Structures are given as C-alpha cells and as structure tokens.
Design the sequence.
C-alpha cells in the first residue's frame, strides 16, 4: 500500500495545531507533515519539533576564518614586507585589533548570508507544494498517510475544523 499526500486547509492556527496533534495520535510521523503559512508561525505554537539548521555553525566557521585572516593581515603582512619606521613596532597592536575585529565580523556576516541562502534551498528547481489559499491568510497542512487510513483521517480533521481536505501533489511554480 502506498502513501497518499493530502492537503488540509485551516482558517486559524488553533484548529491547525489540534489537527497536527490528532495526526500524531493517528500515527503520522513529523517527517510526513509539512505546514505552509503566509505569516511566520513559531514551531512551538503548532507542536512541531525545532527545525534543524546549519546557519549557526557556518557563521561560527566564518568568524573563525575571519579571525585567522585578520591576524594574518595584522602580523603576517608586516613580517612579509618589513617597513621600519623609526621607534615604532613592526606590528602595531591597537590598529591591528580593529582589523582583526572587522575581518571576523565580515567573514561571519558573509558566512551567515551564505548559510541562509543555502539553507533555504534557493534556487529550487524541483516541484513545490503551494496552495493559493495560503496567500489569503489560511494555514495549509500537507501530510502523507497510508491509503487505508485516508478516510479515517479525513473525517477526524473535518471534525476539527478543516475547510477542505483533498489529495495534493507537488507542482512546478
């Protein structure tokens, strides 16, 4: 028996949260549930697990790379190209701290931008699931369930306030 992807559309967040809880009770795992909304909704409000992201790791890696590059600019470059100025150090510390800080922040910012860009799967050329009602402020819940449980789940979600429940498939936008 194969899985069927169904789409349930809800008017408000409370019925959608209750529907997700009911789907969990009926044995639909979190991996098979996708929520689409026109406004940002916290994962806690819907009883969903915290989304996993690698942006913070990429940002930290960029900051470390920027720190190393800044230290190289501050200490490596003057030692490669020595310019002796009477009575001054070859590697000045106070201006060097500014360079190290700026390089650290620059690389962290670039790595964060790249991380968000890659984490959002942009550009995405595969077919996506989208519903026009989402633009009107409604909440769409996509879920995969076995064909045998389709009628039981459809009836349960209708009682919880789903405006419509229908089979869905990904389409090219």
Sequence:
């Amino acid at each position: 028996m194969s899985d069927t992807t169904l789409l349930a559309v809800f008017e408000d967040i409370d019925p959608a949260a209750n529907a997700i809880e009911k789907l969990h009770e009926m044995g639909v795992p979190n991996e098979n549930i996708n929520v689409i909304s026109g406004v940002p909704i916290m994962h806690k409000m819907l009883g969903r697990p915290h989304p996993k992201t690698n942006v913070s790791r990429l940002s930290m890696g960029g900051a470390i790379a920027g720190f190393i590059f800044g230290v190289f600019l501050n200490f490596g470059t003057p030692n490669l190209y020595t310019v002796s100025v009477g009575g001054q150090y070859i590697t000045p510390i106070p201006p060097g701290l500014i360079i190290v800080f700026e390089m650290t922040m620059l690389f962290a910012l670039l790595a964060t931008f790249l991380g968000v860009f890659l984490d959002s799967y942009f550009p995405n050329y595969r077919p996506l699931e989208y519903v026009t009602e989402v633009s009107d402020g409604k909440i769409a819940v996509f879920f995969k369930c076995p064909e045998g449980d389709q009628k039981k789940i459809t009836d349960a979600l209708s009682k919880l306030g789903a405006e419509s429940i229908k089979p869905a498939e990904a389409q090219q936008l």
